[in-house]
Design a protein that fits this description.
This protein has a 5-stranded mixed beta sheet with strand order 4-2-1-6-5. A two-stranded antiparallel ribbon has the order 3-7. It contains 7 helices and 7 strands. Strand 5 and strand 6 form a beta hairpin. Helix 2 packs across helix 5 and helix 2 crosses helix 6. The protein has one domain.
Length: 155
């Protein structure tokens, strides 16, 4: 499955959105992404967000997730969602964690699932300790990768 990882709070989402390919189930990926941000907040900063390059390095290093951003970013205009609360907006995600987009390609049609990092994080708050145990490695290498990444920034 192809996923677009975005955040409604990115100032320039087109510059920071990630496209990944994985067989990880949608809800597991949402929980994993939410837990990553919460672990980052626990270890590094509660006021900053993980930089997309930081997220991608962790996904590639510790999970069976492939970075296909260069290959799929040309489809970004077909995967834009409104973050408004207008329930009549066709592509409104309001407080949804994800949205399916059907993308027409000259050879075929395929689905890209857009996942909102902010909503993913919020959805993990209630059970974050249990979810972190389920989805995050317990290794020192994992903790070091979260803490020592050079790109920690406000987007």
């Amino acid at each position: 499955m192809i996923y677009k990882i975005t955040d409604r709070h990115y100032i320039n989402p087109d510059e920071h959105d990630l496209f990944v390919q994985t067989d990880i189930h949608l809800m597991d990926l949402i929980e994993l992404l939410g837990c990553l941000q919460l672990k980052f907040e626990e270890l590094v900063s509660e006021t900053d967000c993980m930089h997309p390059e930081h997220i991608m390095s962790i996904l590639e290093q510790f999970y069976d997730i492939e970075n296909v951003t260069e290959q799929y970013k040309k489809y970004a205009p077909h995967t834009k969602a409104s973050w408004d609360d207008d329930e009549h907006e066709e592509c409104s995600m309001n407080w949804s964690k994800y949205k399916f987009f059907s993308v027409d390609h000259p050879d075929n049609q395929f689905i890209i699932v857009s996942i909102d990092l902010f909503a993913s994080r919020e959805s993990c708050l209630r059970d974050h300790k249990k979810l972190m145990k389920r989805h995050l490695p317990k290794s020192k290498e994992f903790i070091s990768t979260i803490v020592n990444h050079p790109k920690i920034t406000k987007l």
